[in-house]
Amino acid sequence: MERNSTQQEILLMTGSGFFQQQCFEKNEQDNSKNLSQEEKIEEACWNGLLHELLPDVINKDADGKALMLWQVTPCKSFLEIELCETPAASDRYYSIDPYTFLRESFNN
Fold it and tell me: Which pTM was predicted?
């Protein structure tokens, strides 16, 4: 019997007030990086802060383990975050990414 793999897609709106107020640098002494707000948010996600920022949003797999961060895709006004328990091709038909959603809508 084939087991279903849990996948989750999250869109982080980078221009929101929530992210303007957050401090993403783990080491405040390291001011050598002049990153944009979007780059700081993306780096924070890769550094494991996503679970701290959005603890009630991140899903768990069937065994109760946290999903792994698989991909962070920067877009014009948001970051598309993809989480999964095992890497697998996602069905873009069900995506919440507005660019993909609109493309799929026009194709039907």
Answer: 0.73
pLDDT on residue 98: 77
d(CA 33, CA 30): 7
CB contact set of 78 (below 8 Å; sequence gap of 6+): 11, 12, 13, 14
Label residue 95 by pLDDT band (50, 70, 90).
confident
How many other CB atoms are there within 10 angstroms of residue 29's CB atom? Answer: 6
Decide if 40 contacts 10 (C-beta within 8 A).
no
Helix intervals (H) in 6-88: 17-21, 37-46, 50-53
Residue 13 lies in a domain: yes
Mean predicted confidence (pLDDT) in 65-81? 89
Query: What is the number of domains present in the chain?
Result: 1
Write out the residue range of the structural domain in which residue 38 sits: 7-107
